[in-house]
Amino acid sequence: MPIPNPAAMDFLLSRRSRPAKTLKAPGPDDAALMPLLTAAARTPDHGKLEPWRFIVLRAPAMRRLADAVTECGTRLGKSGEDIAKARDAWERSPLCVAVVEVQKDSPKIPALEQTYSAGAACLALLNAALASGWGANWLSGWASHDRGFVEGALGLGADEKIAGFIHIGTEGATPPERPRPDLDQIVSWVSE
């Protein structure tokens, strides 16, 4: 049996993402970021395929992506409000890690399990950042699904997708707690 870790359990029971709009500089430097990436890379990965990779984005890349998301939104016919909201996250955050899903050919591991692993890497990175005292938020958004944006602005290959953008910085304001799921509504107990 693993040794109980009450502090980790307390963290998981109280964790709360920090809205990207509340993040400010400084963000973690390379030395502070490496343990977060290491924790994210320990995510469940059936078959040890590593169906994900990380792109660390700092200024001026963040400003370049703010411009790219504006161009993408204009091309897609998004409203000015939608474009401004998407752009704001890139302009405010001091750092972002793009978690890229990279499907691997495998006769044993279904593609969907690889997608789950990439999502788990996002959550592991988010939780590692929060547990380390950083403000962090997992975002995606319409631009993350646009091939022109992800290939042109981020250099993704045709076989790659964004699993999530993990924005990390110093928390500017503590968000209020939000309603959580009612376990009585979502848990079934089966004993026979």
Topology:
Blueprint: H1 6-14, E1 23-24, H2 30-40, E2 52-58, H3 61-76, H4 80-92, E3 95-102, H5 111-131, E4 135-139, H6 147-152, E5 160-171, H7 183-186
Antiparallel strand pairs: 1-5, 2-3, 3-5, 4-5
How would you sum up this structure, described in words?
The chain has seven helices and five strands, in the order αβαβααβαβαβα. It is globular, with a radius of gyration of 18 Å. The chain starts with 5 loop residues before the first helix and ends in a 6-residue tail after the last helix. The protein has 192 residues and is of the alpha+beta class. The protein has helices spanning 6-14, 30-40, 61-76, 80-92, 111-131, 147-152, 183-186, and strands spanning 23-24, 52-58, 95-102, 135-139, 160-171. It is 42% helix and 18% strand. Strands 1, 2, 3, 4 and 5 form a five-stranded antiparallel sheet that branches.
Note poorly predicted spans. Answer: none
The structural class is alpha+beta
Q: What's the helical proportion of residues?
A: 40-55%
**Quantity of strands, as a count:** 5
Largest sheet properties: 5 strands, antiparallel
Oligomer: single chain
**What is the helix/strand order?**
HEHEHHEHEHEH
* Mean pLDDT, all residues: 95
The radius of gyration computed from the alpha-carbon positions, rounded to a whole number of angstroms, is 18 Å
Approximate shape:
globular
- What share of the residues does DSSP label as strand, in percent? 15-25%
Query: Helical stretch count?
Result: 7
> Termini, distance in Å?
26 Å
Keywords:
globular; alpha+beta; 192 residues; single chain
What's the quick description here?
It contains seven helices and five strands; from the N terminus they run αβαβααβαβαβα.
